[in-house]
Amino acid sequence: MTSVISLGGSFLFDRPLETSNVFKEIKKIDEKFIVITGGGPIARDYIEFAKKFKLKEKDLHSVGIKCTHTNAFVIAKAFNAEYTTADPRKIKANKKITLTGGYLAGWTTDTCAAYAAVSTHSKVIFNLSKEKGVYDKDPRKFKDVNLLKKITFKKLYTLTRGKRIPGMNFIFDPLAAEICMKNGIEVVVTSDVNDIRRYLAHKEINGTVITNSK
Q: For residue 118, what are the domain limits?
């Protein structure tokens, strides 16, 4: 079996110890993993740098995508994993751990992860986030928030109104959610690396499970 991990760039750069623990943990699990890395602060910095030279929008997207692949390459080398630039819609889990980055302009890390899950017949995506899970409100703006242990894709859609809000990092990407909903793929949003093992062992997790069923 294969599982997919959407590893945000901010998680990579802000939590290097937890990132190391991710790969130490999944090497112990009898499962193959596809890991999609985000761009994080290095992508944002390079995009701002490119803007000074008045690059076109499509080229700015390319800059961001190249940064995601730089991150994927570094992590692959660090943990003796495979690195690929393959289209996530055609990607295969040939090794224990395979890393890649973005692919097309407008696709987030979550979207690439969703397509990779479809390609590898994965039933789950682990979305590693700086937040503990999905909340009923933006935790950066409100104090009276509630962590949702389980939520449907339809409910998630109402929280985001079907839109990708810039800088919103506490909700799984709506386009990726639509792909997962249509293909029966669950999403685990968590900041706890051990939730990967817990979920695959059918144990209660600390984060949020996004699913089709109530």
A: 2-128+175-209
Q: What is the pLDDT of residue 160?
A: 64
Give me 198's structure tokens. Answer: 């817990």
pTM of structure: 0.92
Query: Residue 184 — left, alpha, or beta (φ > 0 → left; ψ -120 to 50 → alpha)?
Result: left
Total structural domains within the chain: 1
**CATH number (domain holding residue 104):** 3.40.1160.10
Q: How far is CA 180 from the centre of its chain?
A: 13
Beta strands 32-37; 124-128: pairing state: unpaired
Quick check: is 179 in a domain? yes
Instruction: At 10, give phi and psi (nearest 5°).
Output: -65, -40
Contacts of 122 (CB under 8 A, 6+ apart): 1, 2, 3, 4, 34, 116, 185
- On whether residue 58 sits in a domain, the answer given is yes
Strand (E) or helix (H) holding 36:
strand 32-37
Question: Average of pLDDT values for 110-119?
Answer: 97
